[in-house]
Amino acid sequence: MPQANHTRKQKRGIYLLPNLFTTSALFAGFYAALAAIEGNFDQAVIAIFIALVLDGLDGRVARLTQTQTAFGAEYDSLSDLIAFGLAPALLVHQWAFAEMGKLGWFVAFIYTATTALRLARFNTVQTGDKKYFTGLPSPSAAAILASTVWIIHDGGYPGAALDWLIASLTVLVGLLMVSNIRYYSFKEIDFKDKVPFISAVIIMLGLAVLLTRPAPILFTLFLVYGLSGPVTALYRLRRHRQRQTRN
Predict the structure, then answer these.
(1) Tens-place pLDDT, residues 72-102
(2) DSSP states of 27-93 as a string?
(3) What is the pTM for the complete model shown?
(4) Of 3, 94, 109, 228, which has the most beta carbons under 10 Å away?
(5) CATH fold of 15-246
């Protein structure tokens, strides 16, 4: 009987390691929201990117340690909503939309709502193809907005001067999240496999370059990823029409 009770308690528990990464990502998102409200935009941007790294690690750790659970998946989504939905929305609102009035907070809400819809669809709709995401992933969407704020703010330009441009970008990114456009997931990359020595050298050089100019490089990388979905979709549509014309 004591052994049965012990087994029952184990089943009711949660795995510490992956959920510790998720909690850290949640805290980074919470801090980013507070920093944005207080006008510390650089700190908010960095906190969002820290949350992005931690969010990538919790899933990897769960898969590597065979500790994936339904609780962990739901907790991760709630963390993502704060770090990649609410925090970026507050960031762009406080930085660029403060003078737009109700329209500004409405645009910020659209982004937050589309993030929630994106996460809900990800949890409930299984595509069966792990190679692709349906819609722009919320961490990438948050990275596009955060890196945009970072590069423009570092350039000394006030966000209010570009409010309509940033608002258009915010709505577009939100719509991409809830679209049916496919994005490569990178889940097929196995970090346990061996790689050529030259690959390790290239990765190290890439990290060194990233550390020298993080804002423009991150902006370019995530913007290219964000555009890759629509460009690929248009290319496939064109190929499909060409095949129909030939037939």
Answers:
(1) 888 899 999 999 999 999 999 999 998 898 9
(2) HHHHHHHHHHHTT-HHHHHHHHHHHHHHHHHHHHHHHHTT---HHHHHHHHHHHIIIIIIHHHHHHI
(3) 0.86
(4) 94
(5) Four Helix Bundle (Hemerythrin (Met), subunit A) (1.20.120)
